[in-house]
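User: Assemble these into one structure.

Assistant: Restating your components, then the assembled model:
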Amino acid sequence: MEKKLSEIISELKEKFPQIKTSEETISVSTEDLLGLMQELKNSFGFNYLTNLTAADYPADAKGKGDGDEAEDDGEMEIVYNLTSVYEKLYLTVKARVSRKNPEIPSVFPVWGGANWQEREVYDLFGIVFTGHPNLKRILLTDNFEGYPLRKDYQWVGGRK
Amino acid sequence: MLRTETYTMNFGPQHPATHGVFQVVLTLDGEKIVKAEPVCGYLHRGIEKLAESRTYQQVIPYTDRMDYLASMLQNWGYVMAVEKLMGLEVPERAEYLRVISGELSRLASHVLATGVYALDVGGFTGFLLCFRERERMMDLLEELTGSRMTFSYARFGGVADDAPEGWLEKLDKLMDDMPGYIDEYDGLITGNEIFQARTKHVGGLSPETAIDYSLSGPVLRGSGINYDLRKAKPYSIYDRFDFEVPVGKNGDCFDRYFCRVREMRQSVRIIKQAIEQIKEIDGPIKGKVPKVLKPPKGDAYAEIESSKGILGFYVVSDGTNKPHRVHVRRPSFINLGYLDEMSRGWLIADLVAILGSIDIVLGEVDC
């Protein structure tokens, strides 16, 4: 089943018309995420979740100021780097969640490797991975307050 | 039948066999492990957060402090991600210097892993033996970079400095001696009956599980998966060298250990070829890079094969001179994530052998 990445992406586009694609990246909604990931693993051989992380994009960073800022607080993006170990293919999947309600389905049922990586993102960003079997802090202590990798996190001390 | 009850016991955080500050909360039935819950974070310094308030150049020294046993490779991974983000070209000579210093760093890391593993399972002589060669490597790296551990040698678009006069000859001499040294490890450690009894068929890992749990490096290859980024996705100039990727069969502790030993021989091969080829190449060691670095808006993910596994850097730029986000895919962290399942059913003494065979560095796990 030797397939090029471009063919895979166009096939996916037929199955999931909502997704946005570029050369090596797929942007997907949280609703489609799990279905897409299962498809990628089972039909296209992306058997290896290389990397899972997130980045914070608060609204004010984009220069937004007028109107109801209470409505739009910005978004956080979860980034998945997938690998097909046997076919040597590489693909990035991105999904965005709102900062107000950061919830996304866990991909642990698809790849076991998501276990600690999702815990790390939860620990540092406060993104909740629904369906994760053991979602608790991993690097910080259990009673730590706040999520340090969010842009609006304030810490006492530190170097200027 | 005697009725038995499970009890919990702390393994670490202050225990030499954890290779740093790391705790495992063990649930035991007699001496048998029922559950092993890893507790990490004792060394968490928030490097990813710190990077957001530093300029791109200032982040390089922080990467040294993650996997401090193979800092050269950590520097390399980070600069590669930023170079990908900016589309920077690296001069040929700089690529050679990166390969040579990177492979030397990998050798130093593997030599230490081998020696410490011998110590873990009770062979003190192997430990001392490995430090003999490591010293020679450290001296060479010090001569090249001015530091023995935290090198910060890589620069965006090149390396900090050319090799000093006579350095490559000294390195060549060490590479001539290395196969003899590795034979000694094979004789003293690999061939040792007690060592084999402690490691063979212990902590087995099937290839499917290794892939499913995103394990990488010798842990993945020990289970028989031929996946090394230097071959699978040749970055830098790795396609110019002739080398093999050693893989194991059973995926047990011994295979993981033995993969490392055989990888050392391949690193020696690569360095030998690189020394031969770099003689022909003259030219700059650093490309044209602006003093104030402001990568265009966007993100980039680059990965290299570190001594522990796949080391990836995800860098997001917002157009200023400081990164918006830096994430490190640390192989030690992800490899450690499978420790619980891997050690269930084994004895406490086996846990030391299993943990040692993963070869973790806590500076990298906790980041």
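Chain B has a mean pLDDT of 91.
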